[in-house]
Amino acid sequence: MDVPRESPHVSVNKLGRYLTATPALRKRLIDNQKHPPDPQYLRYPEASQAITDFLCHGQDEALLRQHQHRLATTVFANEFDAHRAQLCIEAIEHYRQLHPRLGLHGVVASEVGHEPPALEIAGVSIRVWPQMVLQTVDRHGNNKVGVMKLYFSKHHPLDERSGQYIATLLQAFTEQHLSLLGPVEPKLVRVVDVFAGREYQPPRARTRRLCDVQRACEEIAARWPVQ
Q1: Considering only CA atoms, which of 114, 105, 107, 93 is closest in space to residue 45?
Q2: Domain spans of the chain?
Q3: What CA dihedral angle connects 166, 167, 173 and 175, to 10 degrees?
Q4: H or E, element range at 175
């Protein structure tokens, strides 16, 4: 049953869309966040896990093939789950083709826990939820840290502005929650739009974007009680 969230919450992907949306779409996005769908209708958890396994265990392409094979040979209880499995197979294949262009050789990836902390801005909890922590060591032996978030949508690819807003929030998340691992390396902060075959990194000029996020969160918090 749909249980409305009492306090303002928004996923980082939806906030990225909100920041570039029309007024009507902004209103709909808030409503969808307040009345979230049943988790069983999320379409890409298996693809996310497959790509995470691949990156965290040596970047061996055979792992991606194993996940695809498992999804292709599983007998599902209903048509929805079978269709979801096919979408995940396609997503894994798109990532397999994209991966060589991401320049992740020598980067150590580790899985983020299932419930990472949120970012709190203007009374709104932003669920950033990157899938992986990325780490490298510079030529002086100093550890550098970043995160990767996978974005899955066949029909709503990220545009440049949304991608940069999400990357900006990923960098803020890394600075707030992962600083003990070392300084943030912006080149290790990645938003990967799997189906579009694109990645986004934080822009150098972040102040204006963070101000936009602040204003958007203020608007979401104000509208939440009446939505």
Answers
A1: 114
A2: 9-37+106-226, 40-101
A3: -150
A4: helix 160-177
